[in-house]
Structures are given as C-alpha cells and as structure tokens.
Amino acid sequence: MSVAVELLKAEYVGIRDLRTHLSSFLKISKPVIVTDRGTPSKVLLSYSDMLELTDILDELQDRETIKAVQDGRMAIANGTKGIPVENLFKRIRLQEK
C-alpha cells in the first residue's frame, strides 16, 4: 500500500494522548496524524515511509516522469486501461539504468 493511501487511512491522535502514549505510537508502522484541538498539525511517519515520499517528490520533479503521467492520464481518458503508479515508477527506474 502506498504512503499516500496510508495517510488517508491514518489514525488521529491528540497531542495530550500522544504525550501520554508516545512509546506506543512510535512502535506503530503506519502513519499517525497528530491533532491540536482537533486540527491536524503533525504527522508521524516511519523512516521508510519518509524515504518513499522523498523519492516520489524527486520523481515528480523529473520532466520525463511528468510527461509519462500526463500521457497515461490522456490514455485512460481515451479508454485505455491504466497501470498503478508504483508500476510506472518501476518502469521509469528500469529505463534509467
């Protein structure tokens, strides 16, 4: 499951509850959204999730990647079956090698 999907499904925890149970929340491998008076303010992510997000951001700055995503969106709009974004990034990485 991608980090973006995990963020959408993330557990919310208030600052006070986080402070009380910090060690428990740090052991969870899924993202946790920290709230301040009910408003999301911080996100706890695992190291591997942070690396994945950084990698995605780097790829999104690449013109070839952006072009491939745009081409894919147009193809889907024209009725072509799409592929998962993860597979697209894998294909691009393989082409770069």
Features:
3-stranded mixed sheet, YefM-like fold, single chain, 97 residues, 61% helix, 2 domains, alpha+beta
Task: Give a verbal description of the structure.
This protein has helices at 3-8, 15-20, 22-27, 47-60, 63-77, 85-96; strands spanning 11-14, 32-36, 39-44. With 97 residues, the protein is α+β, with helices and mostly antiparallel strands. It has 2 domains: 3-46, YefM-like fold, CATH 3.40.1620; 62-96, no CATH class. Strand 2 and strand 3 (39-44) form a beta hairpin. The longest helix has 15 residues, at 63-77. The radius of gyration is 17 Å and the shape is elongated.
Task: Give a brief outline of the structure.
The protein has six helices and three strands, in the order αβααββααα. It is an alpha+beta fold and 97 residues long. Strand 2 and strand 3 form a beta hairpin.
Helix and strand topology:
Elements lengths: L2 H6 L2 E4 H6 L1 H6 L4 E5 L2 E6 L2 H14 L2 H15 L7 H12 L1
Parallel strand pairs: 1-2
Antiparallel strand pairs: 2-3
Which CATH C-level class of the largest domain is it? Alpha Beta
As a percent range, the share of helical residues equals 55-70%
Query: N- to C-terminal separation?
Result: 25 Å
CATH third-level topology of the largest domain? YefM-like fold
Estimate the global geometry from the Cα principal axes: elongated
Radius of gyration: 17 Å
From the coordinates shown, what is the CATH architecture of the largest domain?
3-Layer(aba) Sandwich
Low-confidence stretches: none
Portion of residues in beta strands equals 15-25%
Largest sheet: 3 strands, mixed
Task: Write the CATH homologous superfamily of the largest domain.
Answer: YefM-like domain
- The overall average pLDDT, rounded, is 85
Q: Give the SSE string.
A: HEHHEEHHH
Number of domains: 2
The tally of helices reads 6
Strand order of the largest sheet: 1-2-3
Helix/strand-derived category reads alpha+beta
Give the total of beta strands. Answer: 3
